[in-house]
Amino acid sequence: MNEYLTLEGQGGLLQVSLKNDWIFNNLNTLQETLDEIEPQPGQRVRFSCGGLKDFDLAGAWILYERSMDFEEVGIETEFEGFRATHFKFLQHIIDIAAQKEYIPGFYDRQPGHYWRNGIRKLGENTIEAVDSVGFIARAVLDGVKRPSRLVIGETIRQVHATGAAAIPIVMVICFLMGIVLAYQSARQLEQFGANIFMVDLVANSIFRELGVLLAAIMVAGRSGSAFAAALGTMKLTEEVDALRVMGLNPNQILIIPRVLGLMIALPLLTIFANAAGLLGGAFIGATVLDINWFAFTERLAFTIDVNDLLVGLTKAPVFAFLIAVTGTLRGMQVKGSADELGRLTTVAVVQSIFLIIVADAIFTVVYARIGF
Amino acid sequence: MAEQHEHVISIRGLHNRFGKQVVHDGLELEVRRDEILAVVGGSGTGKSVLLRSILGLHGPNEGVIEVLGNRIRHLEPGPHKKWGVLFQGGALLSGLTVQENVELPIALHSDLPIETRRELAVMKIFMVGLDLTAAAKYPNELSGGMRKRASLARALSLEPKILFLDEPTAGLDPLAATEFDELISYLHANLDLTIMMITHDVDTLFNVCDRVAVLVNKGIIVDTLEGIVENPDPWIQQYFGDPRAVRARKAARPKG
After folding, report:
1. DSSP at B219
2. CB-CB: which of A28, A61, A338 is closest to B94?
3. How close does chain B come to A109, measured CA to CA in Å?
4. What three-state secondary structure class fits B37?
């Protein structure tokens, strides 16, 4: 009557002969086929393996399940000619399974209780924040107390990786930012016929704010994420533990060089960023705004003094410290899974950019107050 | 008439080179249906490369590999539903619970209703000797032995015909290793499974396996356990002459 079984009703007995492949691949059809079996009340059901070709655990399992359904409504079932092992297996498995009803899985992860989760999260974050401060203090202390020779080489490597390697991209971005600033300020200044003041605007904003800010954001994206991912992977592969048992302090070897390296690299990178920004402004001045290179440099010398440069450069080490510490800290917090690594890497980048902007706001207000 | 065997894996003329280093030079291997074949060999003889070639994870320089009649090509779909692999470290997805890990292949390769999928997964988890408490845990919360069991449950989730085991007892304590060996024997006795395993564990070799394939001189020597220990090859003599191997051979339960 169909592909997988034939039914034969003889008085008190319903003979079900299985055919073909009762395997995982056909499970859906098999389930439907089995559901169609409807014995008369009082009939016994006998499953026999007549023309069964291939049979696996999954096939055996749904057959068993169906027979249990029958048994539940008082219909007797029996099996004939099967490999006994399959059923011994299943009986054993189902006996244990019956003891516990709830099985957690993919599909029923509950969102949980909002309030309770919120408060727990708050508590966790507070502990984490306190922990972080301690962690940073510890790392810095370790670096100062017992400087190691290993640190120097690694620091130089970090200066190269986070600084030198980032020069091209940072310069391109700042050059473009110089162009944008020059254009936008010229549009406003044209109304007063004061095009030349474009130089003041471009130079001041690049030197005091944008050069260092763009460099820092770029570095947060490049190196902050790299720090978190590298240290996180080292945590997962137990490399950090290996260092520790060899008597090497992970703070010494992994964190101090990264923090130091970035604090050296970012101010240098800022100088490149400033230069590129000015170049962008001068380029637009010369090509579009009738301010030739000579006029640009003359105005520049007049409007900018070394303080403006220092305002930008003093921010750089602080930003670098924030980026490096956030990145390494998040990396060291990774434990357990690859997902965690991804999450904390994202957190590292987002938080370091956030911290950079906050710090920049504080700097600006403080510098404005003291007239720097 | 000679005994006829059905071959589930056949490898002909396999060459693998890395730069100038030749790992396999014209390797030939047939794996028979329903047997447990162990692959042994010194380090650098290409045990893992052989396994990875069979699984299509490594593209050999030359040679034809067929698994269940399917030609295996590098990084192309193979008979995914007919083989299961237990990787050395377990390779469970760390972001999913054990239950979800086992459920994943079922969900990927079928459109069964959720309850059916879940129950099948639980069945497999019980089959390898884990319970629901373990099923709800993440891989990093499990011990090494439990992780291997969970990974085995995942490998078995699609009712495979062939099971590949990469160092199944490596990193387990002797007790756990013996239990794992017993589990493999149990599964082999109860399911239609052909098992090919890479192993260094001489106890596994003598207690579980039917035949042994030894990788020597860029080729392979395959024989039964009784046969292989008599083989004159110096490396084989050294390997099976080692006190650990001798002890394992003496202690091995008689087969059958």
Report:
1. E
2. A338
3. 11
4. strand
> Chain B: nearest CA to A170, how far in angstroms?
36
Write down which residue in A51, A80, A107 finishes a domain. Answer: A107
Nearest Cα to Cα of residue A106 among B213, B118, B172: B118
Verify whether the Cβ–Cβ distance A24 to B114 is below 8 Å: no
Per-residue pLDDT of chain A (372 residues; tens, 9 = 90+): 578 888 888 778 888 888 888 888 888 888 888 888 888 777 888 888 767 777 788 888 888 888 888 888 888 888 877 766 666 667 766 666 665 555 554 445 555 667 788 888 889 888 888 887 887 787 778 777 766 666 788 889 889 999 899 999 999 999 999 999 998 888 888 888 888 888 888 999 999 889 999 999 999 999 999 999 999 998 888 788 777 777 677 777 788 889 889 999 999 999 999 999 999 988 988 888 888 888 888 888 888 888 888 998 999 999 999 999 999 988 988 887 888 899 999 999 999 999 999 999 999 999 989 887
Q: How far is residue A174's CA from residue A177's CA, in Å, rounded to a whole number?
A: 5
**For residues B148 and A369, what is the distance between their CA atoms, to the nearest angstrom?**
64
Beta-carbon separation of A107 and B114 below 8 A: yes
Could you tell me if residue A140 is inside a domain?
Answer: no
Does A118 fall in a domain? no
Would you tell me how many other CB atoms lie within 10 Å of the CB of residue A196? 18
Chain B contact present for A62, CB below 8 A = yes
Number of domains present in the structure of chain A: 2
Contact A57 B123 (CB under 8 A): yes
Those residues whose C-beta lies under 8 Å from the C-beta of residue A344, and which sit 6 or more positions away, are: A228, A232, A330, A331, A333, A334
Kindly state whether residue A151 falls inside one of the protein's structural domains. yes
Residue A355 resides in a domain? yes
Give the pair of three-digit tokens for residue A236: 């997962």
The reply to whether B234 falls in a domain is yes
Query: Looking up tokens 């936008």, which residue turns up?
Result: A184
Contacts of B159 in chain A (CB under 8 A): 23-24, 56-58
Give the angle subtended at the CA of A91 by the CAs of A88 and A96, to the nearest 5°.
130
Residues A226 and A174 in one domain: yes
Give me the domain span that covers residue A35.
5-107
Query: Interface pTM (ipTM) of the complex?
Result: 0.73
Q: Report the number of distinct structural domains present in chain B.
A: 1
Give me the CATH number covering residue B219. Answer: 3.40.50.300
A163 in the same domain as A93:
no
CB contact under 8 A, A103 and B118: yes
**B144 vs chain A: nearest CA distance in angstroms?**
14
